[in-house]
Design goal:
The chain has 242 residues and is an alpha/beta fold. The protein has 2 domains: 68 residues, Beta Barrel (Ribosomal Protein L25, Chain P); 160 residues, 3-Layer(aba) Sandwich (Alpha/beta knot), CATH 3.40.1280.10. 31% of the residues lie in helices and 28% in strands. It contains 6 helices and 12 strands. Strands 6, 7, 8, 9, 10, 11 and 12 form a 7-stranded parallel β-sheet that branches. A 5-stranded mixed β-sheet has the order 1-3-4-5-2.
């Protein structure tokens, strides 16, 4: 029987005890309805799963006893950075959730001309915290013990001017080069996905001038929240991960 997995920011080892509070405590007691003796698996993003047993239920916390650890060993050989134009509400959540389940290494939200979401500093910080929570939840579900990084949103121009030295791809319906035909040198790649309506012609020109290679993904137009995860699956297949 598969054990429930819970993320914690605590330092973990193969033995000792950990006190879980807040959402983790609520999930174990109110959602899973576990009791003393219940077995769970903890992870903190270091690539390992830590086996644990509920040893004591307190008023607002749960004490668990660590009983061992094992490396998850399910990360992709290809480190994909998803450069995703910010979309509205659940669409962005879907992109991040499915990209994480598929094994994405890092996520860089970007603001381009056709992005309709307006983020001031306060809203951007709030959305970033929400996106990080979405990614952690996807790791709990998918069995990943390494949590993909989610960077703060930047403008598309700032990303293009940044220090990302990995090969860059950008989805473009009009490109004569299909994504499935691409060969990737090295173990990393960045994939840029436009917003609803896509990148503007000027942005596409700028991306290609910055070294990004335009690739097509078939004759059908995908939603922005579908395109990224679908393209990641193809790249993973090319890299031998699927």
């Amino acid at each position: 029987m598969r054990q429930s997995r819970v993320y914690t920011r605590h330092s973990l080892s193969s033995s000792g005890t950990v006190e879980l509070e807040g959402p983790a405590c609520h999930y174990l007691l109110r959602v899973l309805r576990l009791s003393t003796g219940g077995l769970i698996s903890l992870f903190n993003g270091d690539g390992k799963d830590y086996l644990a047993e509920i040893s004591e239920i307190r008023r607002q916390s749960v004490l668990v006893r660590l009983t061992g650890c094992e490396r998850a060993d399910n990360e992709s050989p290809l480190k994909i950075t998803l450069v995703q134009a910010v979309s509205r509400g659940e669409r962005m959540d879907y992109s991040l959730q499915k990209a994480t389940e598929l094994g994405v290494f890092k996520i860089q939200p970007v603001i381009s001309s056709r992005v309709e979401v307006k983020l001031d500093e306060k809203r951007a910080a709030k959305r970033l915290a929400h996106w990080q929570a979405v990614v952690i939840s996807a790791c709990e579900q998918s069995g990943r013990a390494t949590v993909p990084g989610v960077n703060a949103p930047v403008t598309l121009d700032d990303w293009m001017a940044g220090d990302d030295e990995s090969p860059k791809l950008v989805l473009d319906l009009l490109s004569a080069t299909s994504l499935s035909s691409v060969s990737i040198a090295g173990n990393s790649v960045s994939l840029a996905v436009g917003p609803e309506g896509g990148f503007t012609p000027e942005e596409m020109e700028g991306l290609q001038s910055a070294g990004a290679r335009a690739v097509s993904f078939g004759p059908r137009i995908l939603r922005t929240e579908t395109a990224g995860p679908a393209a990641i699956a193809v790249l993973q297949s090319i890299a031998g991960d699927l």
